[in-house]
Amino acid sequence: MASSICLLLIGNLVLNFIVPCLTTVSFVDLRDILNSSTSHCSVVFPETALTDRVQQFLRTLADVSFANESTVSFGKLREVPQNWPDGRPLHIQGIVAPEELINTVLIFKRSRQDRSCLLVPDDNFISPPVVAFRLPSQEVQEEFDQTLHRLTEFINGNCGTFRNADGFVNLKGIHRKDILDNLFSTSKSSSADKSLKKCMDASKIINMCMLNDNTISESSTPITIQTHNKYLDSGNNMEECERIEVPKTSNFFHEYLSRSKPVIITGAARHWPAFQKWTNAFLKQNYGDRKVHIKITPDGQYEGVEPISLWKNHQNFSIPESVYRKLPYPDLVVVRPASMEIRFSEFIDFIENISLGLVKNMSAYLEYSSITNYFPELIEDIEEMPFFRNVLELKHLNIWLSDGNTLGKLHFDPFDNFLCQISGEKQVLLFDPHDNSRLYEGHIQEAMLTYNASENVFSREKLLESTSMVMSPVDLLHPDLQRFPKFSQVRPLNCTIQAGDVLFMPSFWWHEVQSRPSSLEHRNLAVNFWYEPFLAREFPCQECGLDVNSRYFHLL
Ligand SMILES: *[C@@H]1O[C@H](CO)[C@@H](O)[C@H](O)[C@H]1NC(C)=O
Ligand SMILES: *[C@@H]1O[C@H](CO)[C@@H](O)[C@H](O)[C@H]1NC(C)=O
Ligand SMILES: *[C@@H]1O[C@H](CO)[C@@H](O)[C@H](O)[C@H]1NC(C)=O
Ligand SMILES: *[C@@H]1O[C@H](CO)[C@@H](O)[C@H](O)[C@H]1NC(C)=O
Ligand SMILES: *[C@@H]1O[C@H](CO)[C@@H](O)[C@H](O)[C@H]1NC(C)=O
Ligand SMILES: *[C@@H]1O[C@H](CO)[C@@H](O)[C@H](O)[C@H]1NC(C)=O
Ligand SMILES: *[C@@H]1O[C@H](CO)[C@@H](O)[C@H](O)[C@H]1NC(C)=O
């Protein structure tokens, strides 16, 4: 196609540059729009609305305002259909009567691919949301530039773009780019420059070396869960989390939250009433009668990944072929712990007995249990980080209480997190949200342990018809580097918190958490605040990077 050069003079907006007219705005139909809806936002002008003036808007938007925006496409529509190609009605937000469609521009937003459900067939279409912009009628004497500006803002708001009418990136867009260009990464941090060691950093935690001849040697003594604690104790000089005193809101926002940088705020929870008050005796006395839903495992591992072949009926278990084909690791399962309902006082006795060694081969955990639901009275004994009030939307407030020897396996959470330690210690190994492919993110089938109390045995028989989307298939303790070779390139960050410390764990950082009991109360107790994340991404999706959550564009 030959490209002509045209000079655009748009109302009072003097464009002092020459714009190549490359965009041909052609007629489209709903099939075209649907076909491109996972990658493009479609701005469509019904033919009936195309007066000369409206044609000029269209040309300006396509050739100038959004000329450099690869995710927005423009089209003309012969008529506005009432239905999608499959017969479902086409619903346009804010439009009730057909006559309201006269003189409107329609925006078919990008539709997110449904990554969570493997059951939907590939050719299943998700109809994108449709919104309408009403052009001012002829009688309303609105300046061309003013309408163009409103239309540009409307497209920005619905297509997730950041353009001014003149095509340049707007102020919010500049801030966003600045944030994304300055994200923290362990591989970019200063100590990454430390001289190259023969043993790669990841190998330190896993006790493995890549030898010169590229063969992989495993340490002769296999690491078991029992030696795991000792192993982490051996203190290999893994890069450590930064530690700070309670920061100011704006410092925290710029240095940590918007950079996705983990940090420990030393002693930030130490003054909480909970710190003195929440003894086992106090909890038993005041809340002992409440029923709690607890998780139990034989070895203290929570949500580990293992071969499905260890499960009794794995040969009989069948999931739909189409789902099976989409599983990247069909031979693996995420092991969900067994669970039971018990009285809270009984649970506390139970974890004391476990810690004292009176109960063997058993670990018990009250994990991510909502304080708001279970123990609303306890909320007054804790507080949100003072520098973080009203910054992001609080989604969940959880309590974590266990016998103290638990290992939460490698996964991420789609929340910004403040993890506040009350008793005991947690060694949190963190891996970059950019390391998704090195940690082999993907759907993994789930299974759940069953516990027979009269026999005191756990068994592996319950395979579930669900998948986990946040677990890594790589076992940090015994990584299979033949199968997961890219894992050897990850650089973990060691963020160890003691009672009173608060760890800020930004959304989507992978983490494995080794808990240790407090020597006083033989337990591990923490609370955490989960916030709607400032930086978000689609998952599971190895290539999806973080971006500013559109719910927080107003903060840009
Ligand atoms: C969708 O687009 C792809 C690539 O542009 C094309 O190959 C395919 O035929 C299109 N499908 C439909 C239904 O238009
Ligand atoms: C659009 O992209 C071209 C080529 O990269 C660049 O020269 C031009 O300055 C850009 N225009 C705007 C408004 O950003
Ligand atoms: C992590 O840091 C803690 C405290 O700073 C240290 O005791 C521990 O040995 C470290 N763990 C590893 C695996 O390096
Ligand atoms: C699994 O299949 C085998 C042989 O087909 C059958 O004998 C066995 O009872 C089945 N087990 C379960 C748990 O369904
Ligand atoms: C804890 O151990 C004591 C002493 O052996 C026993 O009486 C009690 O039933 C145990 N409680 C639980 C919940 O395990
Ligand atoms: C605990 O588990 C280990 C390893 O599975 C086993 O050898 C041992 O007999 C168990 N101990 C008890 C008391 O059940
Ligand atoms: C526990 O095991 C015993 C003995 O094998 C069995 O009789 C009982 O039904 C089992 N209980 C449950 C809940 O499966």
From TrEMBL:
Q: Does the keyword Signal apply?
A: yes
- Give start and end of each JmjC domain: 364-546
Give the highest taxon in the source lineage: Eukaryota
Membrane-spanning residues: none
The alphabetized UniProt keywords are: Signal
- Show the InterPro entries listed in the entry: Cupin_8 (IPR041667), JmjC_dom (IPR003347), RmlC-like_jellyroll (IPR014710)
The answer to whether UniProt assigns keyword Ubl conjugation to this entry is no
What residue range is the signal peptide?
Answer: 1-23
Name of the molecule in the record: JmjC domain-containing protein
